[in-house]
Amino acid sequence: MARHLVGRRKLLTAGLGGLALASAGFPAFAPARAEDKRLRMFWWGAKDRADRTFKVNALYAAHNPGVTIDGETLGWGDYWPRLATQTAGRNAPDILQMDYRYIFEYARRGALLPLDEYMPSLLNIADFGKDAIDSGRVDGKVYGVSLGLNSTALLYSKTAFEAAGLKPPTVETSWADYAALFAELTKATKKEGFWGSADGGGSETALEVWLRQHGKALYDKDGKLGFGAAEAAEWLALWDDMRKRKACVPADVQALDRGSYDSSMIALGKAATAFEHSNLLVTFQTLTKDKLAMTMYPQGGSGAKPGQYLKPSQMLSVYARTKFAPEAARIVNFFVEDPEAAKILSVERGVPASAMMRKLITPELNELDQQSIVYISMVSERVGPLPAPPPNGAGEIQRTLRRVNEEVGFARQTPSAAGKQFVDEAKSILERG
Amino acid sequence: MDSIGAVAERRPLLRHRLSQAARSDRRAYLFLLPWFAGFFGLTAGPTLASLYLSFTNFDLVQSPRWIGAANYIRIATSDVNFGAAMKVTFLYVALAVPLKLAFALAVAMALNKGIKGLPLYRAIFYLPSLLGASVAIAVLWRTLFSGDGLVNKVLALVGIHGPSWISDPDYAIYTLVLLSIWQFGSPMIIFLAGLRQIPRDVYEAASLEGASRWRQFRRITLPLLTPVVFFNAIVQTIDAFKAFTPAFIISEGTGGPVRATLFYTLYLYLEAFAYFRMGYAAALAWILVIIIALFTAFSFLTARYWVHYDE
Asked: ipTM above 0.90?
C-alpha cells in the first residue's frame, strides 16, 4: 500500500518537474540593428561601485548614440568562477575588471586583448606615468589599464580611540607597539564582547607586509614560496600572543568573519580595526556608525625594509574575442581619462592613476575621499617595489593561512607546528599549481 | 490483460496487436522526445563528459590534458582535505539522517491524532523546508548560535556559559545537523500519508487485547510503516551526502572554522570553482557517486530483513 503511494508521489513530482521544464520556453531576444553596438562589462564590488559604474556607462551611451553597455556585477568570490566559466565558454564580457592577481594568467592564456595598437589614438594614458602603465603590462604588452592606485591600509575606528581616550596608531607604530596599544584599547573600552584589534594572523596581506619588512617575500620572482617555517611560526606566534593579551579578538569571534566585508570584525562591532586596502575605506564606512580613518600596517621597527607597495586596485581589460575592440578601448579610455566619468567614479576604485584626473577631482572630494588621496601620496614615499603577481595556487594558500591561524587560535596546534605545516602545505600546493 | 495462452491461440490477432503496439510505442517515444533530449543532452552527456574530465587536468581556460588515473591516485593517497571532508560528511549523515527521520515521524504521529486544522499545521511544519538554505537562514542561524546569540542568552539564565556554537570547530557541525532536523517537512508529510494508510481497526483490536501504546507502536505502526521509513531513509541519506548549501551559506564557502564544516560537496566546489581544478573536482564527484551507490545498494540488500511489504 504505502509502497504504491510513494511510487505515485515520486512519479507525480517527476512529471511536474518535466512539465515545468518544458513550459519554461526561451527568453525572447530582441534583434539588434546593424549599427547598434552592444557591449558587456563585468566587474566585482559592492553596491556603491555598481551605482557609479552604471552611471558612467549611461553617460557614455548618451555621448555615443548606438552604443549600449550592459553591466554585470558580482562579489569578489563569485566573480572569478563566473569569469572563468564564461571564458571557457568563449563568452566572456567585452570589457572586464581585472585584478593584478590574475592578469598574467589570463593574458598568457590568450583571453585578453593587447591594447598597444589603440594607444594613444583611442586610449591615451600617457599621464599615468611609467609605473602605473607598466603595472598592466604582461610580457611587454599592455593588457590592463589601472582604475586606481591603492595600497594596503589599516582601517580603524576613530570613535573607539576617542571614547577610550587613547592615541590611534600612526605610520610609526611597530608591531610591538600595536600589540600593546590594542591590548590597552580593549581594557579601556570596557565593553563586553569588544576587543581592540581584529585577528590579522590569517590575513595574507598582513603576512606579506610583515615578511617584506623582514627582508623576505610571500612569493619570490619565480613564484616560489619566499619564506620558511621559522618566519611562519614567528608570525603565528605574534598573533597568538595578541590573542592571549586580549589585544585582538579570540578565535571563535574571528571565525565569524567569513571573508565578506559585512562579516568583518569592525562591521560586527567586535573590534576597531580591519587589515584592508586603502580604496575600501569608503565601503567600510558604509558598514559602521563609527568614524573610520586609516593608517599604514604596523612597521617592522628601525632598520626594517618597507613592507607595503602601491598597486593597481583594479584594471580594465578587454576580452580577446570581442567584436568591438576599438569601441571597447574607447570605453576604457572614457573610464580613466574623461573628466565627467572621473567625477562620478571618484576614488571608490582607488586614486586615479591619471595625474590630470587626480588634479581635477581632488578639490571636490569630501573628507573621507580626501583621505584616500592624502594616504596614497603619503604612502608613496614609504613603499617598496611592486612584487611579481602571485603564482597559481596562491588563492588556496591564502585559505590555508586562514585555517592554520584558526588552528593556533583554537589551541589545536602550537605556532611552531602550525608554521611548519603551513609551509609544507603551501609548497605542495605550489607544486601542484 | 489476456493471458499468454489466450493470445497464442489467436496468432493473426497477435501480429495485428503487436504492430499496433509498436505504433503506439513509436507515438509514445515521439512524445518522450523532449525528455530524451533533456536526458541525453543535459544529464547523460555531461555525466559522461565529467567521467572523461576526471582523468584530465582542466583549468577551464586551457583545454583538458589527459593524465590517466593521477587524480584518483592523489585522492586515495595524499589528499588531506579529502580525509577531513569525508569525516565531516559521514558524521553529518550519521547524525542528521536518523535524528531528522525520528523527529519527522514523531511530528507526523502527533498530527495523525485527528486534530482540527490539520492542513494548516501541516503547512506550518513544512515551512522550514521551503526556506531551504538561504542567506536569511544563515543570518538567523548566526543570530541564534553565535557567542552572544539567543541560545546562549537563554542558557545564561540557567547559569550556563555557552561557547560560540557556530564558529567553534568543536560545535559548528552540530548547528548544521540541527538545521537539517529543523527542515523535517518532506519526510514528515510522507510519514503522515503512510500513517493514514494503516487501518484503525488494527489498533482497536490491539487496545482490546490490552497492548500498551508503546507496544502498539513497536508491533503495529513501525512494521507497517517500514516501506515508508525505507524510502525516507534512502532519500534523506542521499540528500545528506549531497548537502552543500547549508555549509556553503553558513560558512560563506570557507568550510571553516578550521575544517569543521568542510562538507564533501563544499570541498569539491572549492577545487572546481575556487582553485579551477575541474578534472580533480570531477574525480571527487565520481567518488561521491560511488559512495552513494554503495550505500543505496547496501540499503536495498538489507531491506528484505526489515522492510515489510505484506498487505
From this structure: no
